[in-house]
Structure formats: C-alpha cells, structure tokens
C-alpha cells in the first residue's frame, strides 16, 4: 500500500504527478501575479522575478504561462528556460518555443523570432517571454528584442546574486518582483489546501506539526512540500493517525543522519 492510499488520498498531494501540478497562491505569489499583470497591462518592457532556491519561482512561471488571465490585452505567454551555454543555443531554444519551424542557424533563428513577434504585433497581440534561470547572455538577447518592439514584455526569473548582472545588460530600470519566503499562515494554508485538494482531511497535519514544518523549511515552498511529503511517508510507516511534531522531528533526524 502506498502512503497516499494509507492516508486515503486520491493521489500524491505535493509536487508534480503525471505532468499535473497544483498551484497554491500564497501572499508572495498573489503579489507577484498582480505585479506581472501591471507589467504587461502597462506595456512595460521587462521585469525581474527574483527568488532563491525553493522559493517557488519556477512553479509560479509555469502557472502564469498556463492559467493567468490578462486584462485589457491579448497576450501570448512563452515559457522558456534560460539555461544555455551559447547565444546560438539560446536562439534555437527561443525560436523553438515561438516558431512553428525552428532552425539551428543563428541568423535564421533570429529572423524567424523577429518575424513571429512582428506578425503577432500586427494583430495587437503582446508576446510575453517568461524566462526561468535567466543568464547575462539571455539578457543581452532580450534587450535587443524589447528595444525593437513595444509588443514584447520579458520576465526574467533569477536569484538575488544574478539580478545585478541582468539589470546591467538589459539597461534601464526593470520592474522588480520579489518572491520572499512564506509566513506561517501561507505554509499552513498550502499544506491544508494540498491535502484537501486530493480528498484528504485538512487537519491531517496538526497545528504543531505545521509550525515545525514551517520552521524547518524557513518558508521555502519546495522544501516545505518535500518535508510534508516525507512526513506523510513516515507517518504511514508508523501507522499514525495524524502527522504530529514528533513525526516531523523523526524525518529531520533521518535527513541529518543521511547527510552525515
């Protein structure tokens, strides 16, 4: 019997399963989405979405690309990774995301990217580039795109350390959108909603267990989800009826031993 069956859950409550990802809008996520809507709605050219490891930055960008409704404009969101080693690799990735017939040739890729954006702009469609893990190399290319078309908005996802270099290469003053770690109320809401969404009892984790999970994760979304998942696994193994602080402490001890 799997742990989600033990807890009478319809499926795994945390993370991506078979391509499906539930999204929880904590305070920082709601504020970030509001600022992204402002960015696009006011035809601002570029914004930086800044969040460190475990902040939920990648899941937020995926959510925005699939589910956010934009008011006052027709927007074509394009989600793409900024992880690349060369300009040619980046342009190939971007042309593949934007164009029906991507090409490996750098000059052809750039031309097709520009042609696709221009064709969309003639229909008053804004292209919104959502670039996760943006690099300085990517920022230089994005700068050229936003300077040639007012129908392009770029959102560059990065950590705090990378932000300064991106700003220098983009030029101007991009809108800064921070993703701070969650407060306890957000962590509690995330855990309870995640359990309820898969048919479980929202009180499966008692209050003290949630507080301890929040403390251990420091409000980092990805870390919180992983610890909660391990707690369910450990609780099922000990045939518990509820997740308590003792179960959470036990998985912490096991993780420390494994890391030693």
UniProtKB/TrEMBL annotation:
Source species, domain of life: Bacteria
- The organism named in the record is Rosistilla carotiformis
Protein name as annotated = AAA+ ATPase domain-containing protein
């Amino acid at each position: 019997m799997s742990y989600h069956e033990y807890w009478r859950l319809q499926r795994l409550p945390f993370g991506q399963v078979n391509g499906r990802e539930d999204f929880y809008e904590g305070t920082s996520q709601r504020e970030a989405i509001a600022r992204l809507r402002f960015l696009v709605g006011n035809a601002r050219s570029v914004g930086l979405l800044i969040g460190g490891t475990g902040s939920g930055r990648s899941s937020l960008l995926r959510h925005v690309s699939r589910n956010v409704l934009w008011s006052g404009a027709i927007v074509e969101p394009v989600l793409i990774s900024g992880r690349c080693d060369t300009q040619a690799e980046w342009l190939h990735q971007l042309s593949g995301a934007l164009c029906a017939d991507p090409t490996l040739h750098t000059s052809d890729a750039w031309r097709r990217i520009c042609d696709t954006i221009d064709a969309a702009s003639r229909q008053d469609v804004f292209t919104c580039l959502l670039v996760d893990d943006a690099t300085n190399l990517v920022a230089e290319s994005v700068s050229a795109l936003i300077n040639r078309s007012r129908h392009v908005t770029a959102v560059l996802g990065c950590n705090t350390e990378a932000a300064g270099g991106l700003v220098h290469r983009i030029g101007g003053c991009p809108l800064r959108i921070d993703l701070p770690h969650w407060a306890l109320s957000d962590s509690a809401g995330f855990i309870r909603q995640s359990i309820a969404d898969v048919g479980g009892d929202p009180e499966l984790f008692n209050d003290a267990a949630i507080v301890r999970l929040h403390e251990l994760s420091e409000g980092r979304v990805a870390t919180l989800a992983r610890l909660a998942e391990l707690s369910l696994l450990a609780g099922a193994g000990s045939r518990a009826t509820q997740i308590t602080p003792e179960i959470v402490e036990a998985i912490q001890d096991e993780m420390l031993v494994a890391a030693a």
